[in-house]
Amino acid sequence: MAANENDREVSRLWRIVRTTKQMCADRGYELTEEECNISLDSFRQQYTDETGAPQRTKMAFTARPAEAMLKRYTPLPRAGQSDGPEPQIGTVHVEFSGSANIGIKDIKAFAQLLSEKNYYTGIFVTASAPTSSALKIIPSLLPTIMEIFREEDLLVNISRHELVPKHLLLSPEEKRSLLERYRLKETQLPRIRVDDPMAKYLGLRRGQVVKIIRKSETAGRYASYRWAI
């Protein structure tokens, strides 16, 4: 790869890694401001070889959920339950693949790594789209949670766009309070699909409720709520 081609690819992957880490931080994982806003020079020093070519294997990272995230993912206690429920979240592991073909073998290998290392969630960022057969096996890999992102979808952080309102995941307690306050069932709330770009950015799961805060010329700010389906 020529030097100018290296520079273009390094710059592109720098933006992708930066967005990926910002996404994980926005979900509630423990990542520093420095990690989320790494400079291009620092990225080049850490993630390229002696020729200046980017090395995706070096870009992999893990992050633990912060206390606030653990709370948002802890189910409400059931009647008669002596011990509090365990949070339905844990360490996330992120890998980047430049392979031109992502098939069943690649997905299974990533799932095996998540299982062996006891990672709760895996995010697989790929240069090319996985085959349809590879995507179909992902639901069978439960309880491992695996998310696939194309590199091109992470070149820009959509949550930072001025036209995208703030999305905040409600905890189970906040969700219950919301439904009681308005005397609603969750099925009566407006809906958001889990494959919606912002839902995918936040890793929303079916049944969760997200608060969407929009700017208003008259009210300043106003909130609406969406039920993930």
TrEMBL record:
User: Where does the chain cross the membrane?
Assistant: none
Q: Which domain of life is it from?
A: Eukaryota
Residue ranges of domain RNA polymerase Rpb5 N-terminal in the record? 7-112
- UniProt-recorded Gene Ontology molecular function terms: DNA binding; DNA-directed RNA polymerase activity
Among the GO biological process terms of this entry, one is: tRNA transcription by RNA polymerase III
Q: Which HAMAP family match?
A: RNApol_Rpo5_RPB5
Q: Per its record, how is this protein called by name?
A: DNA-directed RNA polymerases I, II, and III subunit RPABC1
